Each structure stands twice: as C-alpha cells, then as structure tokens.
Request: fold
Amino acid sequence: MPPVILALNAMATRFELVLRGENATRLRAAGEAVFKEVERLESRLSLYRPTSEIARINALAAREPVRVSLSVFNLLHHARQLQNETGGAFDITVAPLVRCWGFMHAKGRLPEPAEIEEARARSGMRHVILDEKDSSVRFDREGVMIDLGAIGKGYAIDRAAEILREAGVTTALLHGGTSTVYGIGAPPGSDGWKIAIAPPPGQPSGNIAVTLRDNALSVSAVWGKSFDADGKKFGHVIDPRTGWPVNNAVQAAVVLPSATETDALSTALLVMGLEGHEVINRLRPGIRTLVMGPAEKGYPVRTQGIAASGSS
Reply:
C-alpha cells in the first residue's frame, strides 16, 4: 500500500514524515502523536516564544536560578558535554555573537571589533551554571543567551522516532527542514533509506548518497543568510571560539544513531573544518562524516564512511 505522508510547520522549519505499514489509520495516528510532541517541544525550547522554558531562562537566569523540566535540564547538560567534547566548536550560548553580526532577524552586518569582543565576553558555557539538585539554570553575568537552534530539531526528531517505534512503526523516514533526517528500518526491497546530500551552489559535482537504517543524518552548511563587505562574503554560522563567521568549510555531514548528536556535531564539524575532521571522528564509535572545504581551496573533501569523489 502507498505510504502515509504528513507534514507540519514548527520550530521555524518544516517537518515531514513518510510512514509505511499495513494499517494507514494507525500510521496516521502515530504521525499525529509525533506532531503533538514536536509542538510541545517547540513550546518549551523556542528562543522566540516568551512563555518557553528557554525564553524564561534567558530573561531571568542572570538574576536568579531558574528551575526547568528534567527533560530540558538533561538536554542542556548534553549540550554542555558536546561543547566540551568539541573544544567549544559547538556552543548553545553563541546567540550574542549571532545577534552582534546581525543574523538573528536580518541578513547580517559587519560589526566593529569591539562589538565582537563584547559579545564574546557574554558567550560560552562557562557562564551557565547547571544545578542537578533542583534542575535549575543560572547565568553568572548579564547578557548570556541560550539558543538550542543547532540541537533542538535533532532532539525533536529523536523523540519522534521513539514515539513511532512505541506505536509499532517499523519503516519510516522523518526530517526537520531537510537538514536532519532519520530513517527507521528500510523501504521494501532496499537495505535502507537513500538520502542525497546536495553540493554547494555552483559546485560542479553531483549529489552524494547516504544510506540510513536506524540512523540520523545531519547536514550543516554556510550558505543561506550572508552578506558581502570589504570584498568578502560572511555567512550566518559563527565560530563561538573566535566570534567570526566560519570560513574554513562550506558543508559538513554526520551520521549516527542519535539525531540530537548529529545535529550538534555537524555544526561543530562545519566550524572546525578540514582540520577538525579527525577530532570529530574520534568522538563516537561508528560515526560517519563528511566535510568540504571552501571554494578558494577547490572544495577539498574529507570523509569517513561516506563515499565522495575527491575525498581524502
């Protein structure tokens, strides 16, 4: 029978489900349960909803400890672990720098060096105090801001996969904004879901194919929001370690069983670039990765477990 296909606009992106099975009514019910969970998570994790737990942390945590739900606290703890493991290449406190560069609500601007340094002083997980005794969050200074945009969608997709499995769904594909995709099982007659990683705009090579079976794929890239200044192009992905937009890679991809981790680690790999490829590859058993360098270097590619022409 044909698959059940459902879609939802949430978390500033479009979530889509492709569900296969013998009972379309049960599949649709499972899909609707997934979307209810995604909407619930958006209400807790959104930076822009004033009633969310994250917005409440950002508004109050510099003055007092803010108690949060255990699930949100655990996600923040996980984000801290990933920040430590990547040497700060992944950091959920990068929002002051994103705002400094004008990317939070617009296409960007070139800030003064003093502005960048001031924003850097308000960034970094060192400013975030997590108290396990009462699941509370506190900032040690004003101006710190948490943004789960580089991990929240992956977390939502992991929760979605759990709900589908609990409902007995054994074959499904789900994605959030096409940047993170999760494949459960495999379509009939296939060893997994075939997913294409599109090349950068203007890059001559074709798509790179990745097969997913009970794994997630996340792809991070520098194109999207950008602006030109002083003869250079500046993209919206900021390196938390330097305070400047990423310039040593244009695209990165990570495959793992956890979409939460692929979402975060693909961002970290993009920030770290070619030189960080080996570091990322040592973080998790069985990890598959790809990182592509900038155009001025001829789009060099380094991969592990993902076939790509011209890789090294």
